[in-house]
User: Fold this.
Amino acid sequence: MTDLLHTLFEYCEQVQASDIHLAVGQMPRFRIQGILSPNPTFPEISVPVMDEIVQRLGATSLSRERVFATLQTRGSIDGATTSPSGSRYRFNLFLNAGTYAVALRRLDAAFRSLQELELPQCLADFCQCRDGLVIITGPTGSGKSTTLATLLNQINRSRDGHIITIEDPIEYVHESRRCLVNQRQVGRDAASFHAALVEAMRQDPDVILVGEIRDLDTIRTAITAAETGHLVFTTLHAGDCAGAVERIVSVFPAEEQDGIRHQLAMVLRGVFAQHLVPAADGRARVPVYELMVVTSAVANLIATGRSKQLYSAIELGQPQGMVTTDQCLSALLQRGRISKQVALLLAHNPNALLGHLAKNGAPQPKGDAR
Assistant:
């Protein structure tokens, strides 16, 4: 069974698949360039094989005897494991029609630079902040964890301090370089994101990474940590920068939302929204992004609840490194990196995007890797 899992990892890395899906009675499926399909060279997964895979993977997060009991109680287990080649995989084990199933996400084997990821170099400016809140947002599978790991790695190698990460599970392992790095896994090292974040405030951190802010208590404590002199990085599921702001505010009761807007305007340093889309040549996926830097003008819009005007503020913020989704799409189209069809699916204003391209060509987003 171990050999099968290792063979699956080896094939996944060979074809550069992003995900592996395993289910009883099904051949293993691999997601390659965003498309999930079965591989007939592997046999269907039997119940005994699946049970062994679940037990072996689950044992990385829980003791063996607790794996199946926890699955029956909670319905799923999150964790991470390392392949023989050294690649890290995040996984979710879950109940599926009375049996078990597994979804594994392959993570980069090594830290990559912003240029290698085709992300704007001005993202590195957030690594120089001494305090505040930085949010990376986007749908599942858009590369948020990789972007965060890149920024954290840069801090670890460029300044002195104490970094605490709170994750579920730990995805990228950071060795202490110039910074002391402590990584805590929810469910193993801490009871919850909120509990770990409260505890982190007593552990003298300079930088805190919260894997995801999901609930009111965690969001409230993250804002408090940013207010009290810590630099906090986190992720959120939202489609764009304005949506991330509104997502945070909407979690709070109506009577608190005005106050939270003002707090957020004071502590928020920036929001980076990203998607991964197929490249025009079909050989890779390309990041499409939106970057909002919180200037005094942006902070005023957030504080006064005028989130609908944030997109216009980002459009006018190119001197500060800001870029809208449509500006990023225009640049990618001009360089032939993506197809027009893909661009129109993501465009904020498809007609304006086409008109701008036809008339003027596309501006290059500041800091975009060539």
